[in-house]
Amino acid sequence: MSLIGYLSTLVDHISTYKVRRISAQVTLLALVIFCVIFTPKTTLAEPLKITLAAEDGWPPFANEFGSGISHNLINQAFKQVDVDVSTIIVPYTRGLIMTERGSVDGVFNVTREESTIDRFVFGNEPLFTVTASFFFAKEHPTMANNKWLLPSRSIIGIVNGYEYGDEFNTLVEQRKLQVITVNSQRQLINLLLVGRIDTAIMFDLVADVYIQQMGVEDDITAKFINHKSEIFVAFSKLNPQAERLSKLLDEGLLTLQKQGKYHQLLQPEND
Predict the structure, then answer these.
(1) What is the number of domains present in the chain?
(2) Rounded to 5 degrees, what angle do the CA atoms 25, 29, 33 make?
(3) What percentage of the chain carries pLDDT values higher than 90?
């Protein structure tokens, strides 16, 4: 082969190599772009968003301003499992109805008992446990030292829609109690003060807030316990994700306990 022929062949070989190399680089670049565009962005997925009804008259757990222990605890628990919570502030009974109808995903501060277990979906981990007691006006004391010894036909006040334990209906029947229903614990305190009712069942911590606000610490007192309630978020049975949400909340609450944050969130000063 002549020198000129050899050089020509060498140039052709180098040119072909460059073309193939550039072609391979272009193909690789196109493949990378395709993967970026069409690969699901699982790492950038938005958190699950839910709406809960929160009652407006149960301080220090939930008040009319959308704050309280329950708000803090529920928001932080769901935050651990990447769930964003928005709330609608409504009266308690309305929140129950909205949840049953599927208008919201769930409702705050519900006792899991016979009257609610078939209406809603509950998790396994309660938000917290509260005590409800029988309160009396000091001007109208009682000789009874437990609820089963209440005088027959006593007039008892309760809040509409609240749960008072599985024994309540039996108590009313056995002691032939006359039940008056109102919309708030504040109203119950007023009825006690004016002697319209003999006793009222109120949740202790909630009653303490209202008694202090009303300046009647020396006039109203708790005498004996009605029941203890484990308080939950109740999820709508019409929501196909209700079981999943209840398990996520359980997971979030357990995570807060492991982190040592749970008991801090139960303090009223976090309100």
Answers:
(1) 2
(2) 170
(3) 80
